[in-house]
Design brief:
Blueprint (H helix, E strand, L loop, with lengths): L36 E8 L5 E16 L5 E17 L5 E7 L3 E4 L9 E5 L2 E6 L5 H5 L18 E5 L5 E4 L10 E11 L2 E8 L2 E8 L2
Antiparallel strand pairs: 1-2, 2-3, 3-4, 3-5, 6-7, 7-8, 8-9, 10-11, 11-12
Length: 213
């Protein structure tokens, strides 16, 4: 099995302006820079190959007035597309992929955004809060209108990437009444085949166990 994913450190919180460009799932467009990408994880394999997982992130502050004339500021957090790159042991690029994702939230420090990551050898497994309808949208090559992740309940996307960069994307709770929300940043790979992610439901916290398949 491969080594555990290495966390590059605390997240920066840049204050920048602008929107995100959403790409369909697949290879990066040639000679196109993907803006505002932060390195989230580095996975080093025993054979010397490595995978890098980046995520588009930024934060905005919005100033507004309430009905009584009071002034308040809202912080809006954006966790968007994932960028995956794998390098061979000799340093040559093996493959690169973009996974479309849309997570926007207000005044929560992105508690339910970003991803949980596990690996089994050179396979990668990614879980994040999503909207189950995005599975249909992403499979439609002409449709880039991603929905924001469901803030009321968890519709997680479960993504498996094999050693050659082939993607399989599933919605394991599609059609189920999962009235809880995953907290992907509070996760741990607890065995070769299991990923545990903290979840909140009705003010209570519990762990959800994903079997890596």
């Amino acid at each position: 099995a491969g080594t555990a994913p290495a966390d590059p450190g605390p997240r920066a919180r840049p204050r920048v302006r602008g929107g995100a460009r959403v790409y369909r799932e697949g290879a990066l467009r040639p000679r196109k820079e993907v803006p505002r990408v932060e390195l989230r994880h580095i996975v080093v394999n025993p054979n010397g190959s490595c995978s890098l997982i980046g995520e588009q992130f930024w934060m905005r502050e919005r100033n507004d007035y309430n009905m009584t004339g009071g002034y308040f500021t809202r912080q809006v957090f954006y966790f968007m597309d994932l960028i995956l790159v794998k390098y061979a042991p000799d340093g040559q690029l093996s493959w690169e992929k973009v996974i479309p994702k849309r997570q926007e939230s207000v005044n929560d420090e992105g508690l339910y955004s970003s991803i949980a990551l596990a690996n089994r050898g050179e396979e990668l497994f990614i879980v994040f809060n999503d909207d189950e309808k995005n599975l249909e949208i992403i499979n439609d090559p002409g449709n880039n209108n991603l929905r924001n992740f469901n803030v009321l309940k968890s519709d997680p996307s479960y993504i498996r990437i094999d050693k050659d960069g082939n993607l399989e994307r599933l919605s394991p709770l599609k059609g189920k009444n999962g009235q809880f929300k995953l907290r992907p940043i509070d996760s741990i790979q607890c065995s070769k085949n299991h990923l545990a992610i903290l979840a909140s439901r009705n003010g209570l916290e519990r762990f959800c166990l994903f079997e890596l398949d």
